[in-house]
């Protein structure tokens, strides 16, 4: 369970509540050595990166601080959850304001995005997304806690610190993020946590997992027409539906789409129906502050894009030469 509580305003403290792992099979039973369980932090090599691993008998968290302070992989009971882009495996490219290097994993991202004015973040792999973060071990043993602090970004005035903790006797992960105003003048931004879940078929990584789902709860008093908002992609998307009792269900298909929810219930779930593993992310909704575009939860399904051009023609495919990577993003926004 990844608990993510965000208070996102300048110099805000973001608390990510525990992330919960769920396995619907029988393989993830309590381990007999749990009574003597300990949590440890160690340096490892991971897919060509110098990485830091935080682990207990159930969970391995693999961090790559030099790539924007990313949590690159989460492994529970031997099952890896996150998408790691093989195109950039083991690499660190210099920060860029004009290119985006999608390494994968879990990261922080700034909102609102855009290039209209100074109140919008231009995105791409700048210092916030791709800068070198300083890794520190704060504790280990009965409880592991680490921190990663990034550089000051002169464009936004922001500096990120991510703190992640894991108990010795639990698979629960807690995230806490501090967003510092390093500009010397008032600023206002929202920040989101972005987790990229691997949606490739475990038997053939060139094909998508046809039984991967995401869930959350819609707002019964939603400000969106259909209780969710289609920000990108086709307005009529058969992969998304609102079920009984306001349950939002999204079936992953490799079609580029971005769906916004103004959910107040404080949770989302990513479920792999083939392996029967799931992840639950929790957060605290702040009733007192507005959220960007009203959205507290966003899902992005990566895949081919359907676009209409100014001349009225339409195209369907990938903007890159390579086939689109297979992953789904679960995003939790701060106010």
Question: Key features?
Answer:
mainly beta, 335 residues, six-stranded antiparallel beta sheet, Beta-galactosidase, Chain A, domain 5, twelve-stranded mixed beta sheet
Cα radius of gyration in angstroms: 19 Å
Count of helical regions: 1
Distance between the termini: 22 Å
Could you name the CATH class?
Mainly Beta
- The count of domains is 1
Q: Quick check: average pLDDT?
A: 89
| Strand tally | 25
**Main beta sheet, described?**
12 strands, mixed
Quaternary structure: single chain
Sum up the overall morphology in one term: globular
Structural class: mainly beta
Could you name the ranges where pLDDT drops below 50 across 5 or more consecutive residues?
4-18, 23-29
Beta percentage is 35-45%
> What is the CATH topology descriptor?
Beta-galactosidase, Chain A, domain 5
Helix-strand blueprint:
Blueprint: E1 2-3, E2 5-6, E3 13-23, E4 40-46, E5 49-55, E6 59-64, E7 70-76, E8 79-80, E9 106-111, H1 127-130, E10 134-139, E11 143-149, E12 158-167, E13 173-181, E14 190-198, E15 212-217, E16 229-232, E17 240-242, E18 247-251, E19 257-261, E20 267-272, E21 277-282, E22 297-301, E23 305-308, E24 314-317, E25 327-333
Parallel strand pairs: 1-13, 1-21
Antiparallel strand pairs: 2-3, 3-13, 3-21, 4-5, 5-6, 6-7, 7-8, 9-14, 10-11, 11-12, 12-13, 14-25, 15-18, 15-20, 16-19, 17-18, 19-22, 20-21, 22-25, 23-24
Describe it for me?
The chain is an all-beta fold and 335 residues long. It has one domain: Beta-galactosidase, Chain A, domain 5, CATH 2.70.98. It contains one helix and 25 strands. Strands 1, 2, 3, 10, 11, 12, 13, 15, 17, 18, 20 and 21 form a twelve-stranded mixed beta sheet that branches. Strands 9-14-25-22-19-16 form a six-stranded antiparallel beta sheet, with no helix packed on it. A five-stranded antiparallel beta sheet has the order 4-5-6-7-8, with no helix packed on it. It starts with a strand and ends with a strand. About 7% of the residues have low confidence.
């Amino acid at each position: 369970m990844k608990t993510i509580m965000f208070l996102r305003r300048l110099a805000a403290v973001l608390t990510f509540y525990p992330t919960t792992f769920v396995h619907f099979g029988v393989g993830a039973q309590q381990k007999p050595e749990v009574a003597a369980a300990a949590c440890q932090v160690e340096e490892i090599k991971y897919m060509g990166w110098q990485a830091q691993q935080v682990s207990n008998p159930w969970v391995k968290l693999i961090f790559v601080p030099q790539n924007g302070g990313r949590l690159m992989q989460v492994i529970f009971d031997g099952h890896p959850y996150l998408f790691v882009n093989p195109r950039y495996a083991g690499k660190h490219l210099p920060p860029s304001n004009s290119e985006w290097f999608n390494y994968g994993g879990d990261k922080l991202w700034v909102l609102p995005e855009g290039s209209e004015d100074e109140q919008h973040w231009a995105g791409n792999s700048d210092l916030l997304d791709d800068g070198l973060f300083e890794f520190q071990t704060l504790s280990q043993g009965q409880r592991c806690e680490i921190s990663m602090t990034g550089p000051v970004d002169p464009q936004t005035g922001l500096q990120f610190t991510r703190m992640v903790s894991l108990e010795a006797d639990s698979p629960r992960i807690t995230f806490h993020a501090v967003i510092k105003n390093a500009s010397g003048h008032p600023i206002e931004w929202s920040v989101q946590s972005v987790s990229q879940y691997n949606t490739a078929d475990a038997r053939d990584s060139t094909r998508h997992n046809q039984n991967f789902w995401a869930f959350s709860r819609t707002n019964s008093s939603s400000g969106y027409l259909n209780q969710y908002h289609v920000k990108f992609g086709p307005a009529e998307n058969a992969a998304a539906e609102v079920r009984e009792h306001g349950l939002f269900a999204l079936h992953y298909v490799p079609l580029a789409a971005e769906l916004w929810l103004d959910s107040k219930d404080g949770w989302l779930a990513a479920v792999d129906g083939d392996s029967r593993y799931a992840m639950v992310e929790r957060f605290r909704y702040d009733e007192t502050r507005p959220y960007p575009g009203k959205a507290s939860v966003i899902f992005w399904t990566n895949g081919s894009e359907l676009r209409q051009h100014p001349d009225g023609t339409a195209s369907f495919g990938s903007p890159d030469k390579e086939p689109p990577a297979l992953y789904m993003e679960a995003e939790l926004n701060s106010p």
